[in-house]
């Protein structure tokens, strides 16, 4: 049943059940799952824990909605509903951000509210694209009308992680629905609350029942069931590379469903000797410390030309000292909240210890902060060598390593020496060198003279083991459409 919650002088009725067919329902087995406030370690609420049977029910409702209503709803009407969802996201933005801050540990005023803006923009953007889906006509044969249709898959399964719950859901729901699909979305165990509240907005916007379904449950059971479901036509996943591989295997072993995978990263940020060092230091801070380093494309590997290394490090430590304010996530000045969980905090600590054992020097941070919750201080590791554990493995925390280089070729070689290929940043005042580096870095996104200020008008793609397919931008809708060719005989006789 829903519960009344209160934080930061805001009170609301929090849904805790599965959202299927526009109704909140208990899971078949009625088991529950605790969700924790990572800034205190205390339980916020218990939500229903779906199992495979609930996935079957949600997929079945979604299929019916697709066949009976959604596939006959024209793009402009789908677009209107998405634009309404965008408006409601803005209307309830403060409350959604409050829930997100409490459940995920994002600082409310310097982080969670920014996510709301992004969500509203993405629903509006794809609302505008919904009526612009077109096919092509081949003019080759005068005796044939040969054309293509771009059709929705039908039922999309979506699985998201905990670092940007509302935002990642918008990356999937908006293009999937704009393309004409229905969706069953599984939220992460650690952060179920914001999307369960968002379900209210789905009803208020007027979406037909079954078009958007939101379920809570473990990855091992609910995520695995969605990936292997015979009646899910497309799976879109954001999360770790290891789980992405399992999803692809499950898809291959079931109905060969199409998959879009947005996976892990270990992104480089190259500081060339001719750049504006003050800017490089500020962006390097934003690029890895924002969201407590829990960013897939966080630029965690700082590769710095040896001639500017000491000055850059001095600037970076100064930025951290001035900008990073750990504290209550509802304090207006707080920029640094807790990590998502105790287990994740321990993992980050383990990486810092490992780096020290491999010869790194801790220039700042390296320790937990405060008495309560799962806070870890922004940490800069110096003297990290290419191939060291922290140079290769995704930490997903507020930890950046600094590695020196001598030449352009060496910088690019270190940058590309990773199994991942998600993001990359380059700092230089030489425009040709910047573009050349953007060509030479093997990642799906490159920033020149910034980091992580991602633009949703551009596609977001993982190269190498960072993913398959792309999201966002006008091409983001392609992942939710399949092609059909139709040939009409205009008079050929045999
Ligand atoms: P994760 O462990 O891969 O979990 C992501 C989601 O997958 C969760 O909902 C999880 O469920 C579910 N899951 C777990 N095992 C599953 C299985 N066997 N089958 C199907 N689903 C399963 O990742 P995370 O630790 O939550 O998130 C951090 C990772 O996500 C990092 O690697 C990060 O780089 C990546 N990420 C990538 C992007 C991108 O756009 N490329 C964006 C954000 C994050 P439960 O946790 O609820 O059990
Ligand atoms: Mg939580």
From TrEMBL:
Read off the Pfam families from this record.
Answer: Aldedh
Q: Which domain of life is it from?
A: Eukaryota
List the GO biological process terms. carboxylic acid metabolic process
Q: Where is the active site?
A: 262
Question: Where does the record place the Aldehyde dehydrogenase domain?
Answer: 30-486
Keywords (A to Z) from UniProt? Oxidoreductase
InterPro entries given in the database record = Ald_DH/histidinol_DH (IPR016161), Ald_DH_C (IPR016163), Ald_DH_CS_GLU (IPR029510), Ald_DH_N (IPR016162), Aldehyde_DH_dom (IPR015590)
Q: Name one GO molecular function term.
A: oxidoreductase activity, acting on the aldehyde or oxo group of donors, NAD or NADP as acceptor
**What PROSITE patterns does the record tag this protein with?**
ALDEHYDE_DEHYDR_GLU
| Recorded family membership | Belongs to the aldehyde dehydrogenase family.
Record-linked PANTHER family = ALDEHYDE DEHYDROGENASE-RELATED
Q: What is this protein called?
A: Aldehyde dehydrogenase (NAD(+))
Q: Which organism is it from?
A: Starmerella bacillaris (Yeast)
Q: What is the lineage of its organism?
A: Eukaryota, Fungi, Dikarya, Ascomycota, Saccharomycotina
């Amino acid at each position: 049943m829903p519960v009344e919650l209160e934080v930061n002088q805001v009170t609301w009725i929090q849904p805790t059940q599965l959202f299927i067919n526009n109704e909140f329902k208990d899971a078949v087995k009625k088991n529950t799952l605790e969700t924790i406030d990572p800034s205190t370690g205390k339980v916020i609420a218990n939500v229903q824990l779906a199992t495979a049977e609930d996935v079957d029910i949600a997929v079945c409702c979604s299929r019916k909605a697709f066949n009976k209503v959604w596939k006959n709803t024209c793009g402009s009407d789908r677009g209107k509903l998405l634009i309404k969802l965008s408006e409601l996201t803005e209307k309830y933005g403060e409350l959604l951000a409050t829930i997100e801050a409490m459940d995920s540990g994002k600082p409310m005023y310097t982080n969670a509210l920014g996510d709301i803006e992004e969500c509203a923009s993405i629903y509006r953007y794809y609302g505008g694209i919904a009526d612009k889906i077109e096919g092509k006509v081949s003019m080759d044969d005068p005796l044939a009308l040969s054309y293509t249709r771009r059709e929705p898959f039908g039922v999309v399964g979506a699985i998201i992680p905990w670092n940007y719950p509302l935002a990642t859901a918008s990356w999937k729901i908006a293009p999937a629905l704009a393309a004409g699909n229905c969706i069953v979305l599984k939220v992460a165990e650690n952060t179920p609350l914001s999307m369960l509240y968002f379900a209210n907005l789905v009803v208020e916007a007027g979406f037909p029942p079954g078009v958007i379904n939101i379920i809570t449950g473990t990855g091992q059971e609910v995520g695995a069931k969605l990936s292997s479901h015979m009646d899910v036509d497309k799976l879109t996943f954001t999360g770790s590379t290891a789980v992405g591989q399992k999803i692809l295997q499950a898809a291959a072993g079931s109905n060969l469903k199409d998959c879009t995978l947005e996976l892990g990263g270990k992104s480089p940020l190259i500081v060339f000797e001719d750049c504006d060092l003050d800017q490089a230091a500020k962006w390097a801070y934003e690029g890895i410390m924002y969201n407590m380093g829990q960013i897939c494309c966080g630029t965690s590997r700082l590769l710095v030309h040896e001639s500017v290394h000491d000055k850059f490090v001095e600037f970076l430590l100064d930025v951290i000292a001035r900008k990073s304010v750990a504290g209550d996530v509802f304090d207006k000045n707080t920029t640094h909240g807790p990590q998502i969980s105790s287990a994740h905090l321990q993992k980050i600590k383990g990486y810092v210890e490992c780096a020290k054992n491999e010869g790194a020097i801790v220039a700042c941070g390296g320790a937990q902060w405060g008495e309560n919750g799962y806070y870890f201080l922004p940490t800069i590791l110096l003297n990290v060598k290419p191939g060291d554990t922290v140079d290769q493995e995704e930490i997903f925390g507020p930890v950046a390593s600094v590695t020196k280089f001598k030449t352009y070729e060496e910088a690019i070689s270190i940058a590309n020496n990773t199994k991942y290929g998600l993001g990359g940043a380059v700092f230089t005042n030489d425009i040709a060198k910047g573009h050349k580096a953007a060509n030479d870095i093997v990642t799906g996104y490159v920033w020149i003279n910034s980091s992580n200020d991602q633009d949703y008008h551009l596609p977001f793609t993982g190269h190498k083991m960072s993913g398959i397919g792309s999201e966002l931008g006008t091409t983001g809708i392609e992942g939710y459409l399949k092609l059909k060719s139709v040939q009409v005989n205009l008079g050929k006789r045999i």
